[in-house]
Amino acid sequence: MNPKQTALVLIEYQNDFTSEGGTLHEGVKAVMDSTNMLSNTVETVEQARARGVTIVHAPITFTDDYHELTSQPYGILKGVVDTKSFRQGTWGAEIVDVLKPEPTDIVVEGKRGLCGFASTNLDFILRSRGITNIALGGFLTNCCVESTMRTGYEKGYNVVTLKDCTAALSEEEQRLAVEKNYPMFSQPMNHDEFLAQLSQEKVAV
Questions:
Q1: Residue 5 and residue 159: Cα distance in Å, rounded?
Q2: Which of 16, 66, 129, 132 is deepest in the core (most CB within 10 A)?
Q3: Domains, the chain, ranges and CATH?
């Protein structure tokens, strides 16, 4: 896998998910711990960046009153509103410190729903940079990661899902997504398998 044609897309590594005190952290903490997903992601980002992989952050944010959404949200977005998660300008919406974007990283703006492509210019960014491979990690395994995976697959990207860089609200949801859904629309790998797929070419300093 050519690093120059590869992007690592980090979905919603924000304090509301990743950190103690985050509005949704208690829901994902058990699976985060079982997959060691945050440490695995940090390692993957550092090694992938050093090899020339494009690092893309895809956070989700809303205004304080969530006026971007319907007045009667349902499903997962109702949960976001009810818990007052991912509000612009709050600590909870910030990307976790251990994954703060570097100057060479790309932060995609405009994500308001589940799929990383749907309300952003992610596809334009990737294609303009000649990206053909995308590796996905983040939250939730069976929600935003899965939605982005399916769209990436249908848009013709070579999609890798990083099994041990994802977390869901339960072990059951994690297992079913990784075992049943991911193989249909991606090449599921652990982070070390993905890193081994990258050529060893280093970026000139």
A1: 12
A2: 16
A3: 3-197 (3.40.50.850)
